[in-house]
Amino acid sequence: MRIRKLYGIGVGxxxxxxxxxxxxxxxxxxxxxxxxxxxxxxxxLALLTIEEIIRERKHIVVEPVFPMTKNQAKLEYYWKKARExxxxxxxxxxxxxxxxxxxxxxYSTFYRFLEFLRDFVDEVEVIPGVTSFSACSSIAKVPIAExxxxxxxxxxVKENENAMHVIQNSDSxxxxxxxxxxxxxxxxxxxxxxxxxxxxxxxxxxISGKVTEIEEPTHYLSTLIVxxxxxxxxxxxxxx
Length: 240
Description:
Blueprint (H helix, E strand, L loop, with lengths): L2 E8 L10 H9 L2 E3 L10 H5 L1 H6 L3 E3 L9 H18 L5 E6 L9 H8 L3 E7 L4 H9 L10 E4 L8 H6 L3 E5 L4 H8 L3 E6 L7 E6 L11 E6 L13
Parallel strand pairs: 1-4, 1-5, 2-3, 2-4, 6-7
Antiparallel strand pairs: 7-10, 8-9, 8-10
């Protein structure tokens, strides 16, 4: 199999209406769609987001399993298995779209997948998508950053030695999939926060308040935005 063009496409946080026009057009045109899932017994949420597009045209669809594990041997096994599945089922396909929730360039599996498939691909194009924190901020009507404010994204507090320094020196901190809320509450308990759970899906929730006041259990599709209130400098009109 030879892939003339591989697209990495961000399909947004889950709301089909947040799909970009370019992503919509390309998804209708490609021969094959690759949509990763985290477990054998779970479907792909990214695929669920574009199901209406798939109904409009018959695509070859592959849903490889990319498990949420740090076991390198297990990861290598599933990555190689995914490559073999794509190459086997995609015979005759010239264009392939690898879809991911949010944006392909932010904690996505796309670039790792590309490493495994690079020898079979002639051209690559990445189409950005709306991130969960952009959607969360928009729904809550609270800006993530203004003026010269600094924004930091932290995937895991416990496994990042620089987390505390980054948190203390940022105006807004975005925690993706916050598993350790107790630790975050200890660090930032009195700060204003927004927790978005399954933002973009029909059962989405937005909870606002101080970090210590948020009791909602966090989910795999959770985003926590915490605002460090500092003394604001007057804004330059050019930044409006």
